[in-house]
Specification:
The structure is a single chain. By secondary structure, the protein is an alpha+beta fold. It folds into two domains: about 180 residues, Nucleotidyltransferase, domain 5 (2-Layer Sandwich); about 80 residues, no CATH class. It contains twelve helices and nine strands. The strands form two sheets. A six-stranded mixed sheet has the order 3-2-1-4-5-6. Strands 7-8-9 form a three-stranded antiparallel sheet. Helix 10 crosses helix 12. The longest helix is centred in the middle third of the chain and has 19 residues. Keywords: Exonuclease, Hydrolase, Metal-binding, Nuclease, Zinc, Zinc-finger. InterPro entries: Ribonucl_H, RNaseH-like_sf, RNaseH_sf, Znf_SWIM.
């Protein structure tokens, strides 16, 4: 994205279980003119009505609470067009962006193209040395009272924390601040997958052995070094393999995770359409993350 986002939207998801494609609630907060001007929250009926006890302990949502709630496509229908071209804020954005991408893919819905900014990373850079960077701790820091782990309230707190940092930083806007700090991430859009479409054909064409090539990407490392990331067929299905040194010890290195999340900022190979198709090609939204994580399993900063 080369222009400033038309909208600033903070988003927060709560999930029913460890799967990223199990949202049971979403909250959004819109920012205009340096303040929150609109807030929305929706309960969501997950496709699989399986609620983990740990998740229930965190957000308090039970199957009976969402039994009559709309499914994800209906719940998000009013908001998805607004996400396209926006700067989307989230606290621990890799989780919330991952939930959005995984659930859109699970329902065969188009992935909007947008930029994202993680307020957790933003706070760590702007307020170094804080004892904790949890949403509740940062809300206390700025004197904000809210109900933690309520999706609507969490999105509102995320927005207010971002605005507090913006005011202190003196930056003209959050998009500029995110770019200045190197925290803004571009998310590639993706057309809705169709049965027998490009994703299915590409998956059938994957090589039977990892030594033979599949989809290839070249990404820029933090020091400018280019690395090859290849889609290969492993023992448990297709996966991404990176040529960086870190992947020898951690296959889900940051280059793999970024591509799996649809990030194209560091892409050097000029094939963003292939990045957009990765979610469908990989089949399992969580296979290139650091293991299945839910809101309950987020690491405490």
């Amino acid at each position: 994205m080369t222009t400033l986002p038309a909208r600033l939207i903070a988003i927060d998801f709560e999930t029913a279980n460890e799967r990223r494609d199990s949202p049971c609630a979403v909250g959004l907060a819109w920012i205009e003119g340096g303040r929150v001007v609109r807030r929305e929250a929706r309960l969501i009926r997950p496709a699989e009505m399986r609620f983990s006890p740990g998740n229930i302990r965190v957000h308090g949502i039970r199957p009976r609470d969402v039994a009559r709630a709309p499914a994800f496509p209906e719940a998000m229908a009013p908001f998805l067009p607004e996400l396209a071209g926006s700067l989307v804020l989230a606290h621990n954005a890799s989780f919330d962006v991952g939930v959005l991408a995984a659930t859109l893919a699970a329902y065969g819905l188009a992935q909007p193209a947008y930029a994202s900014l993680c307020t957790l990373q933003l706070a760590r850079q702007h307020w170094p040395g804080e004892p904790a960077y949890r949403l509740s701790a940062l809300a206390d820091r700025i004197g904000l009272r809210f109900r933690h782990h309520d999706a609507g309230e969490d999105a509102y707190a995320c927005a207010e924390i971002a605005l507090a940092i913006l005011r202190e930083s003196g930056a003209p806007d959050l998009a500029a601040l995110g770019r200045r700090l190197g925290l803004s991430r571009e998310r590639a859009g993706q057309a809705a997958p169709a049965p027998g479409g490009i994703a299915a054909r590409a998956l059938r064409a994957l090589p039977p052995a990892p030594r033979r090539p599949g989809l290839r990407f070249v990404v820029r490392g933090s020091s400018g070094t280019p690395y090859d990331v290849v889609l290969v067929k492993g023992r448990d299905g297709p996966r991404l393999r990176c040529s960086c040194a870190g992947s020898r010890y951690r296959p889900d290195c940051r280059h793999v995770t970024a591509l799996a999340n649809g990030e194209v900022d560091a892409l050097l190979s000029g094939n963003p359409a292939d990045v957009a198709a990765l979610r469908g090609l990989l089949g399992c939204p969580d296979m290139n993350e650091a293991g299945p994580r839910s809101r309950a399993a987020r690491p405490v900063p």
